[in-house]
Specification:
Layout (H helix, E strand, L loop, with lengths): L1 H10 L16 H23 L5 H8 L2 H32 L4 H16 L2 H9 L7 E4 L4 H7 L9 E4 H4 L2 H26 L3 H9 L4 H31 L12 H12 L2 H30 L9 H15 L1
Antiparallel strand pairs: 1-2
Length: 323
């Protein structure tokens, strides 16, 4: 051994380093936690399978009945319409809040403050009761007959008359209540997205001659979508769940109403409650998939990894800058 060391020293070579033996760090706490979780999951699954109260066959036979399928369709339609109208209303309110006019921005702030303060269940119940406030809603000039009679004419300038008991009832009342509430939340989401865009973008568009509306529509909002989409997806899932509150109106064709009606009629409340949970989990999962692809679509170009060609160009620019 000493001869090899002396020869290495004479030739100027160094001995190769010894191989490092890495000893993995043990984590007994993780294994204990995994065992505890596995035992709890096994106990839960055993309870689901063996407890006769759930009546799985009865639940499956009723959760896909024609009435429940129509209820699921009504829930999806209500969710889509409420979100579309709520987003449009939220964009208008957000733009109003950012207006330099204090009256416009103040009115938008009052709207957001008022409808964010009211629970949706209370708001839906109130909207469903508006039919008792006015039996008819008329659009036009209300005293047209009397005024026209003074000039010898007989005309009616009221061009639209609505029955309040029909307007504020059922599906329409539920949609109005959800849209009014969602518009307030979406206004804050859209406002945050607009304010996340660099103000220089709007200034550059204004310098090019674009109007404020065109700048907002073509420049600011497309860039703000990256910030708006994630919370909007969460609001959509929340809206899907909040359609169960339409029982306060009531909307009898809604999913939760139909499942509760079957449970009350058959005196099997727990199996139909489990069916309701499974339905909402499935529909929410479907919306989560759509949210993922939307976020991926509007996040293109943000935080992307540098490609080889881009890296070569950057290095060439750095070398040119040093010479």
């Amino acid at each position: 051994m000493s001869t090899e060391t002396d020869s290495d020293a004479a030739t100027g070579r160094t001995a190769p380093p010894e191989q490092i033996r890495a000893v993995p760090v043990r984590h007994p706490g993780r294994w204990i936690a995994a065992v505890v979780i596995a035992v709890l999951v096994a106990m839960f699954v055993h309870m689901l399978v063996t407890n006769p109260v759930f009546q799985w066959q009865f639940m499956v036979d009723n959760m896909f009945s024609p009435a429940v399928l129509r209820g699921a369709r009504t829930t999806l339609v209500m969710t889509v319409l409420a979100m579309l109208l709520g987003v449009l209303l939220g964009i208008v309110i957000a733009v109003m809040r950012l207006s330099p006019n204090p009256i416009v921005s103040g009115a938008a702030w009052v709207y957001v403050w008022f409808f964010r303060a009211i629970p949706r269940l209370v708001l839906l119940f109130f909207v469903a009761s508006l039919g008792a406030l006015y039996s008819t809603y008329e659009l036009g000039f209300p005293f047209d007959r009397q005024l026209m009679g003074l000039f010898g004419f007989d005309a009616d300038l009221r061009f639209l008359s609505l029955d309040g008991n029909d307007l504020f009832a059922g599906f329409t009342a539920g949609l109005i209540g959800l849209v009014l509430s969602e518009g307030a939340y979406m206004a804050e989401i859209v406002r945050a997205g607009i304010q996340s865009v660099d103000p220089g973008q709007a200034e550059a568009a204004s310098a090019l001659g674009l109007s404020r509306g065109a700048t907002m529509r073509r420049i600011v909002l497309p860039q703000a979508m990256r910030v708006i989409i994630p919370p909007t997806g969460n609001e959509t899932i929340a809206m899907l769940k909040d359609t169960s509150l339409l029982i306060a109106v009531p909307v009898t064709s809604e999913l939760n109403f139909q499942l509760r009606a079957i449970g009350s009629r058959t005196f099997q409340v727990i199996p139909l409650a489990v069916a309701s949970i499974l339905w909402y989990v499935a529909l929410s999962s479907l919306l989560m998939v759509g949210q993922y692809f939307l976020e991926k679509r509007f996040s293109r170009g943000f935080g992307a990894r540098e490609t080889r060609a881009q890296r070569a160009v950057r290095r060439a620019q750095e070398v040119g800058a040093t010479h």
